[in-house]
Amino acid sequence: MTDEQVIEMAKQAGFEIGSVTNSIYAPTLCEFELKVFAKLVAEAEREACAELRKTLSAIPNSHVPQLQPAVDSALDFYAERIRARGEA
Description:
It is a single chain. With 88 residues, the protein is mostly helical. The chain has one domain (3-87). It contains three helices and two strands. The protein has helices at residues 3-13, 31-57, 68-84, and strands at 16-17, 24-25. A two-stranded antiparallel ribbon has the order 1-2. The longest helix is centred in the middle third of the chain and has 27 residues, at 31-57. The chain is elongated, with a radius of gyration of 19 Å. It starts with a helix and ends with a helix.
């Protein structure tokens, strides 16, 4: 995750960017914003992990091509399970 992505998630969570130091600050108690921010970060991380499915399925399986449907099915299963962790 890049610094820009983290800053964007902080803004989405309700944090403001200071005009003097250009750093993130919370003008009040920020429990709510921190919870939202943590959820956004976790969601982005889960999605990045689930997207690995595409990378793994792109690796050619020339040794045993008949196994590719089973491998793809397993990769789909795990990608779905990773994304579902955000629903629990």
